[in-house]
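Chain and backbone:
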Amino acid sequence: MGKSMYNFGKQGKERARQQKQMDKAAKRIMAKQLKANLKTGTPNADSDIAEPGLVEEIVKNIA
C-alpha cells in the first residue's frame, strides 16, 4: 500500500501557518514597544523608527 494523498501538503501548510503566527506576534510586540516608546520617550527624529537589531532579537525570543 502506498501513502494516501490525504496528507499531501499538510506539513508545508502547517509550517506556513506557524510562521504567520510568529510574524503576527512579532508585529504585535513591536507595536506595543513603539507605542510605549512614544508615550515615555522624548520626541526626536529617530524615536519612531524601530531598531533592526531589536526586531531580530524579539523574533528569536518568540521562535
Remarks:
- Helices lie at 10-40, 52-62.
